[in-house]
Amino acid sequence: MIRCTLSAPRAVASCRELHGARRGGVAQHVLRLRMFSGVADDEDLVSDDASPPPPPDAPKRKTSQRDTYLEELPVTFSDISRANVAIRTGVKRTPCIKSFFLSELIGANVFLKTEFQQFTGSFKERGARNAILALLRENGEEYMRKNGVIAASAGNHALALAYHGKDLNVPVTVVMPVVAPLAKVDKCKKFGANIVIHGAHIGEAKEKAEELIKTSGLEYVNGYDDPPIIAGAGTIGIEIIEDVPCVDAVVVPVGGAGLIAGIGCAVKTLKPDVKVYGVEPYFAASYTAALEAQMPVATKVTPTLADGLAVPMVGSHAFEVAKHYVDECVLTTEKEVSLAILRLIENEKMVVEGGGATGLAALLPGAQLDRQGKKRNSILSIYDMFITLSPFYCLKCDPDPDLKGKNIVVPLCGGNIDTTVLGRVLERGLAADDRMKNFTATVSDRPGGIGRLTTLLGEHGASIKDMYHERAFLQSNIDFVKVKCVVELQGLEHARLIDKMLEENGYDPVWDGD
Fold first, then answer.
1. Most buried residue among 82, 156, 220, 475 by CB atoms closer than 10 A?
2. Measured between alpha carbons, how far apart are the two ends of the chain, in Å?
3. Separation of alpha carbons 330 and 22, rounded Å
4. Residue 25 confidence (pLDDT)
């Protein structure tokens, strides 16, 4: 099993040794990019094993039809490289931290890209800053500082745009629906943004923003589909390749598809053999629907723990880029998302919102990317479908879907979760982990009847969290009462032990979920 160390320089050295990486390949490409960004010197590009320059009369490499087509996409690697230089002084370069506990749990080397450590708590800062800088270059500082930008958002994009608008002295107007968390509304106000509360949901807020554009000189910034937004998000991919050059797969949460489009473009350009997986919740599967229809389509979205990913239709620019770079998209359940948040808090001491933890959720035991012995239940990219249908395709050429033992990077893209929601999510996580369960039992209503039950539970290590009595609707002996108990346990085996004990003592428990 290949293991990368925690620090970026040691990881680079280790991966070069294990994989036989050459500076003339991906590493050289990254070094050129770093020199362009001012982080590396010319001497770094000189190496004993560098390939000699081609002779003057050597034929030039022909540009393939695919290369030409990719260069015509709404966002290219050149755009991401320029964004990487433009925003580097204004956003935090977050680390890729290897998780010992999650690696052991998942059976792979798991690296966490901690984007929730940005100042406003999400990766959205990268795109927001890049978009404002692009508008300043395009329209001029005088025009932009007189008119400003506008966006419709209920969360992370609003915070990022408000913060970087203040930093760059560009006025920001944000239209937020009435369901927007008050904490985020207050933070946007503190950053100096003009807040307009309108609409029951983000769709109505966007309609209001479009009305305001017609009567003002405001420039609209889409939170996931504007090319500068996608390019800014793609800078995460450059950092992933630099920090974990031995990466085998990147697992990215999918909402409007801007994040995965940018990361996929950057990662696949620098290291084409890396697999890029998208993950979205079952309750907001807009990217999966777009792949099936081969175009963005409106999708029914229901409330989900991953509320930041609840986008009814992916962006057209984002989808056009993503479908050429993303290998596969899988779905995750609410149970898996709550478990992922719980695992991050308990094992890594990281507080991450539902959308930010969705990538990790798909890797947990029993989830869609827990591939050992599991059949695929996902939508393949256009590229994979083309290869599969090709006459040159054979089963031996099919990339191994098993991720066990591989080096996997998971961007934790946001950490803005309300404390009240966090409490409920943790309880759901404990229930999903069989560490909090409830059962109903019938006990004697005479003195000592409930006391005997609680004594038995305590003697077997179960902690009673709540207990409810029901007398009126029990159709049995008047001397008995129905009791519903919520107990904290140590896991599934402990729950089975408690169930056996209760049956042996004549309580005949009925567990919720049975």
1. 156
2. 40
3. 33
4. 47
In this structure, which amino acid lies at residue 104?
E
Residue 240: the pLDDT is 97
State whether residue 150 is helix, strand or coil.
strand
Higher pLDDT, 252 or 438: 252
Predicted TM-score of the model (pTM): 0.79
Q: How far from 31 is each of 173, 190, 218, 228, 273, CA to CA, in Å?
A: 39, 40, 39, 23, 19
d(CA 311, CA 162): 21
- CA dist 148 and 219 (Å) reads 7
DSSP state of 74: S
**Cα–Cα dist 185/223, whole Å:** 17
Alpha helices for 244-293 (secondary structure H): 258-270, 286-293
Token pair 């280790």 is at which residue?
14
- Residue 123: name the closest of 320, 260, 321, 299 by CA: 260
Could you read off the pLDDT of 127-180 as tens digits, one per residue?
Answer: 999 999 999 999 999 999 999 999 998 789 999 999 999 999 999 999 988 878
Categorize the per-residue pLDDT at 440 as very low, low, confident or very high, splitting at 50, 70 and 90.
confident
The candidate with the shortest Cα–Cα distance to 359, out of 185, 66, 111, is 111
Q: What is the identity of the amino acid at 488?
A: E
CA dihedral 255, 261, 262, 268 (to 10 degrees): 140
Whole-number Å distance between alpha carbons of 362 and 194 = 38
Q: What gap in Å lies between CA 221 and CA 226, rounded to an integer?
A: 7
- For residues 8 and 35, the answer to whether their CB atoms sit within 8 Å is no
